[in-house]
């Protein structure tokens, strides 16, 4: 039945050997579409040659018709040679007829190679994937064709095209095709007579930790609240709310080294602008977009950033990362354990003994307990108003002056420490202010440790 269908196809259309094989691509394994198409035509040629050599005149006439069909419509050389051997003529076309389905794209697949190589010549990569977007009428023609001949076992045009282009590119560049997270996605948009090539470069991810030794610096770039980055008198036409950020201290060296077009900074949570990040630092991942160089020297970049931002920002523990780790870094931020140092002042003076008693009370009430925090007033304009359940693990305190104390507080990630101390007008309860029976103010806050 397959061979009968092939003959019916060639009675109406001329299609190339690649497209013929593709129409039956789901049948049989470990063969290319070209090999599959050749096998079908060879089987038909052999069968009809055998019938032609028989003595029965009626089958011989049909076999001759079929051999001429294969020689003319399929332009199949073995059929042509048989007819010549038997002293029989067939119509030789002056000009080759284009394949009805692909217009001979698969016979000229190399024409895409040089344009692709020009597009990617300045890009460093190890793996690639070919994608394509054929004009809709190419797909429509093929869909109607398959419907006309009730073909259910065909491979899609796109799948066949992507693989064939991938094979020649792999052979030419000695690079590896990769279906999951390739370094390059090469997209070919084409019609029968023209094509365009676009290259999507996979982002490069670098993990590290940063320390922030100064106050008044946000983690990421903040646009001016008034002009939204356009530049105005309020921001001295910089478009920024703050002159610098951790992101801006770190990113430029990575962008320059990788020749990326842009970057995005992902932190494991963030500290307030007036809070320092000390200890082993806060985990971060910098995402470098459209990098032309992937094999960047992380040690060299680390030294460069730390030299430029000396006594302000420091980065360390750099390593290459991936998008999955970004997702984990964001989703797991609240499961971290964080240690803070808080310098606290009271509105009234107390004795050392009273402080000792209050510290013991703090330990009894808070340690290994859950507290409830409504969204703080200071961030309510940009965060949902909800109640968060957070755990406090340990509290240590030092009496500095009758109205000045230092606390070391170990808590679950995402705990609002300032509000834990002040109470935030009752939005965090219990709070240090409640236990001390007077208002407490957090004058300075530092993050000492983040444990993932």
Structure explained in plain terms:
By secondary structure, the chain is α+β, with helices and mostly antiparallel strands. It has helices at residues 2-12, 17-22, 33-52, 57-72, 77-85, 113-120, 136-148, 157-173, 246-258, 298-308, 323-331, 352-366, 417-422, 432-436, and strands at residues 127-134, 176-177, 184-190, 195-201, 204-212, 262-267, 275-289, 313-320, 337-346, 369-374, 387-401, 404-412, 428-429, 440-451. The chain has four domains: 2-85, no CATH class; 108-201, VC0802-like (2-Layer Sandwich); 204-331, Alpha-Beta Plaits, CATH 3.30.70.2510; 335-451, 2-Layer Sandwich (Alpha-Beta Plaits). The chain contains 14 helices and 14 strands. Strands 5, 6, 7, 8, 9, 10, 11, 12, 13 and 14 form a ten-stranded mixed β-sheet that branches. A hairpin with a 7-residue loop joins strand 6 and strand 7. Helix 9 (246-258) runs antiparallel to helix 10.
